[in-house]
Amino acid sequence: MAADSNSVVVWFVRPVSGQDRSTGDTFRADRHAVFAERVHQDGNETVFIDAQGEIVARWPTPLIVRVVWPDPLGTPSSSTEHKPITLAERKRKNPAAYDAWTDEEEGVLLELDNAGRTVGQISKAMGRSPGAIRSRLRRLGLDG
Q1: Pairwise CA distance, residues 96 & 116, whole Å
Q2: What pTM value is reported for the model?
Q3: What's the chain's average pLDDT?
């Protein structure tokens, strides 16, 4: 991995595959340099996007430990630490995390929403994250 002052350096929990930008060769390493202007990250995937809006790299979010962005002013770089969270850890907090929604659960969700419960209250009652509740409400055509 050859990094320069304009690249974002992504560190991983273990070596992952990538492609050398200049030669096109495939390699495995525990860090990669990408030329990106922005990033989209969620619990599943992290996507790096260049100035033209093209996706230049993507990896599963749980594999990423740290992302170091270049600083155009030359000040010390900052990094975002990311500790991978296991499914078991997520389920301890939200027991129904990543489980498929049943028709019965959607009915309960609609009842709680119609009763004026907050997203936080519904989240606790259903064992799902607030983000999962908002997402399902939007999918059902409600505000969330």
Answers
A1: 22
A2: 0.48
A3: 85
